[in-house]
């Protein structure tokens, strides 16, 4: 067996929790995985030893030209390290708008790789995201009826992913239907050849079960670029294992960090609202951040830090709101300003609590997670065991390691906060 020490799979994620979600999937498959917050510096890169590297960008909602530039820079860095295949990861709810950025980034990556075809499959059946005849379902509801139609930044009002993706790219978008996937990897490869002959460059792939994702992973082993949610990565480790390039080992990092802890929530998703409600119902201390008070210049950050220090137990600091409340704030402050103010505040609260001795952070929301890890100065994360589907425990590198659980707003069981705190303390 020939096992290489260079990374095999290079991944570009369009947000921070999405990157962690993908890293979690690869670790479960036996790939030692490192997540970088942005493109690693030369100093950080020198010490990397992993089968897969996931570069977390904050490009989901940035202008498309900026997202393309950042993604191409990440691609070049990964190719320079010898990665054999590239994975562009986005949310399992296909978060995007007609302005971008899934299609635009996929276009740029295909061009840079000199490739003419890729699949697009955000399915994650374990978390209730399935694709049938090109339509994305969240549990038993169409995407456009799942609550995602109320997303403050990327409202998803159309469940037809072929139509959604076609609006973002001049390339022809097609469909890899469920009945082809059900016939196995050879049938999928044959259909890909037919789609190429028809001028299709991107194909939405149906998947209603993990078995479908394993088939797609096997069938796409030779594609230079894959795009999708973390579920599509299920079958990728086995491709490298069959080729004799993946060593047999437990890929999960042990997590056991001493120090205080805190829960920070900025997502307005249905799942995070439920998790906040569960915390409050348990009678645990919590403080809600009011964006309008932030806009008025009130000392919200200082008050939150003081609240956490005086509580004598773990607290939740949250800005989670109902869709109606979010819309009201956006009408007064603007969409971008209101979101940026909350993210910055939660990041500054995290930084202040770090100085006060907090070393374990549970964070809900992709944009919030990005703000928090940047405020904490985190550059690299090693991936531990799974807490809930799509969310692992992680530990940062450096002289003062921090334990973090970075959760997409839509992920996690209702008791996620309690479970994450337990696992970050090494008690799971």
CATH class of the largest domain, named Alpha Beta
- Label the overall shape: globular
State the low-pLDDT regions, or none. Answer: none
CATH superfamily of the largest domain: Putative sugar-binding, N-terminal domain
SS elements, strand count: 18
Cross-sheet strand order for the largest sheet = 9-10-5-11-4-1-3-2-16-17-18-15-12-14-13
- State the CATH architecture of the largest domain: 3-Layer(aba) Sandwich
Helix content: 25-40%
Radius of gyration: 21 Å
Protein topology:
Layout: E1 9-13, H1 16-28, E2 33-37, H2 42-46, E3 52-56, H3 64-80, E4 85-89, H4 102-113, E5 118-121, E6 129-132, E7 135-138, E8 141-142, H5 161-166, E9 172-176, H6 178-181, H7 185-197, E10 200-205, H8 210-219, E11 225-228, H9 236-242, E12 260-265, H10 270-281, E13 286-288, H11 291-295, H12 300-310, E14 316-318, H13 323-333, H14 335-355, E15 358-364, H15 366-376, E16 380-388, E17 391-396, E18 403-407, H16 416-424
Parallel strand pairs: 1-3, 1-4, 2-3, 4-11, 5-10, 5-11, 9-10, 12-14, 12-15, 13-14, 15-18
Antiparallel strand pairs: 2-16, 6-7, 7-8, 16-17, 17-18
């Amino acid at each position: 067996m020939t096992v290489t020490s260079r990374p095999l799979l290079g991944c570009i994620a369009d947000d921070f929790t999405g990157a962690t979600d993908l890293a979690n999937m690869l670790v479960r498959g036996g790939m030692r995985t490192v997540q970088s917050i942005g493109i690693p510096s030369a100093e950080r890169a020198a010490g990397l030893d992993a089968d897969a590297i996931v570069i977390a960008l904050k490009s989901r909602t940035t202008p498309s030209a900026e997202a393309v530039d950042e993604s191409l820079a990440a691609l070049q860095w990964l190719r320079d390290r010898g990665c054999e295949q590239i994975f562009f990861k986005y949310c399992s709810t296909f978060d995007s708008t007609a302005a971008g950025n899934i299609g635009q980034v996929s276009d740029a990556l295909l061009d840079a790789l000199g490739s003419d075809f890729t699949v697009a499959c955000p399915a994650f059946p374990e978390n209730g995201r399935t694709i049938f005849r090109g339509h994305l379902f969240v549990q038993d509801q169409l995407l456009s009826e799942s609550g995602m139609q109320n997303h403050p930044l990327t409202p998803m009002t159309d469940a037809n992913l072929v139509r959604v993706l076609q609006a973002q790219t001049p390339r022809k978008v097609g469909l890899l239907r469920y009945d082809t996937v059900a016939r196995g990897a050879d049938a999928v490869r044959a259909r890909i050849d037919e789609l190429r002959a028809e001028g299709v460059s991107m194909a939405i792939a149906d998947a209603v079960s993990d078995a479908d994702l394993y088939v797609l992973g096997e069938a796409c082993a030779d594609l230079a670029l894959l795009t999708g949610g973390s579920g599509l990565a299920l079958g990728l480790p086995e491709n490298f294992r069959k080729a004799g390039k993946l060593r047999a080992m437990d890929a999960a990092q042990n997590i056991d960090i001493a120090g205080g802890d805190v829960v920070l929530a900025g997502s307005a998703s249905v799942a995070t609202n439920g998790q906040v409600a569960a915390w409050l119902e348990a009678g645990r201390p919590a403080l809600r951040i009011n964006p309008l008070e932030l806009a008025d210049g009130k000392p919200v950050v200082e008050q939150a830090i003081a609240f956490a220090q005086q509580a004598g137990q773990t607290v939740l600091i949250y800005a989670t709101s109902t869709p109606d409340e979010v819309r009201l704030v956006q009408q007064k402050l603007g969409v971008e300003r209101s979101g940026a103010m909350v993210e910055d505040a939660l990041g500054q609260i995290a930084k202040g609590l770090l100085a006060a001795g907090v070393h374990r952070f549970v964070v809900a929301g992709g944009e919030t997670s990005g703000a928090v890890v940047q405020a904490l100065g985190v550059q690299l994360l090693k991936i531990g065991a799974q807490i809930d589907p799509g969310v692992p425990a992680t530990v940062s590198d450096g002289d003062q390691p921090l334990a973090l659980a970075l959760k997409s707003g839509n992920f996690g069981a209702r008791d996620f906060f309690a479970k994450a705190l337990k696992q970050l303390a090494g008690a799971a």
